[in-house]
Structure formats: structure tokens, C-alpha cells
Amino acid sequence: MTRLFVTFEGGDGVGKSTQVRLLAAWLEERGETVVSTREPGGTDVGLEVRELVLHHRGDISPRAEALLYAADRAHHIATLVRPALERGEVVIQDRYIDSSVAYQGAGRVLDSAEIRSLSLWATENLVPDVTILLDLDERLARERLTSDAKVFDRLENEKSEFHERVRSGFLALASAEPERFQVLNAEASVEELAASIRARIEPLLS
């Protein structure tokens, strides 16, 4: 029985959503039951948290922000992700614990070990089987976002220095756990990235 938990990480504008969709479609073609989800926003509770942390007009203190993400994560894993995994399904998720460590830890300059510990407690120590990190220079990522003419959320509106710290945080996490992470240059074409991701995932399927 397949039981696989795959997460996608990286800064805003790197193409995570596209690769999540392509991987899910490929797995379904192979007969897998796939749950595609995201954080925050993977549940009804998560949608409310997402609106608060990404679009709240006032300030949110860094520690409060970290706790809001952890609360969403606890509910998301307990009600959606873990049940799917227990059924033997494949879960593909856009952002997880590593995003909190990178954004609230490195980006907000909180203690990264404490942020990770908080999320592990919230999820009862659920760690992904594979994490795909799409890495891209902050300036190129910003150009992609700007070209889409989208309205930036609270995190996307942060200064370049913040996003550079976030990128460094992600790369540090990948360096510390090379067996879990697959780091890909997000400047590659959509097709090249998708092929590399499939090659990483295929050996793990039953």
C-alpha cells in the first residue's frame, strides 16, 4: 500500500503550485489516489487562518504569526493529511514545517529550532518522505510575481532582505537533510522540473 507524503517548498514565485498540479496528475495516471493540499488554507479552518496571516491589514507580531501557522498545521494534519496517509494515499502539499522555519525563523529572525519544535509538536512529529525545494534568486522570483500583476500578500510585500534570509533558510535546511530534500533550480523549464521530480518520486511508489 502506497503511503507517501511529499511537500513542496521555496519562496514565492518559484512555481510550486504548477509542479504540485503536474505531479498529482502524473500520479493519478499511474492509479494512485492523491490528496493535494496547502498550508495555510488546506481546511476550512486553514482558509480563515490564511486570510488572517496573509491579508490582515494591521501588524501581527512574529511570535503570534508563528503560532497561527502552527495552529493551522495542527488541525490540517489531524483532520486531512494523517487520515489520508493512513488510508494509503499520496499526499502532496504546498508548504509545511520547513516554510515556518524559513519564514518565521530565518525571515522574522526567531529561533529556528524553536519554530521547528513547535510545528513538530503540533503535528505529532509527522515529517515528509520527500521535500522538493524549488530554489530561485529572490529578484527573479519577484519579477515573476510582478509580471503576473497579482496583489501581494503580507509576506510577499516584505523587503528583499527578508526574502533573501528566507531563501538562505531553505537552503540551510536542505543542506542539513540531503536525504529528504531534492533541491532544483527553478530557472529550469516547467517540463524539466517535472521530469526531475517524477524521477525522484517513482522509486518510492509501491
Q: In the CATH hierarchy, what is the class?
A: Alpha Beta
Question: Which class of secondary structure composition applies to the elements?
Answer: alpha/beta
- Point out poorly predicted stretches: none
What's the CATH architecture name?
3-Layer(aba) Sandwich
Q: Which strand order does the major sheet show?
A: 2-3-1-4-5
Report, as a whole number of angstroms, the end-to-end distance: 6 Å
Order of helices and strands: EHEHHEHHEHHEH
Question: How many H/I helical runs?
Answer: 8
Tell me, briefly, the overall form. globular
Question: How many DSSP E strands?
Answer: 5
Tell me the fraction of residues in β-strands, as a range: 5-15%
Largest sheet: 5 strands, parallel
CATH homology superfamily: P-loop containing nucleotide triphosphate hydrolases
Count of discrete structural domains: 1
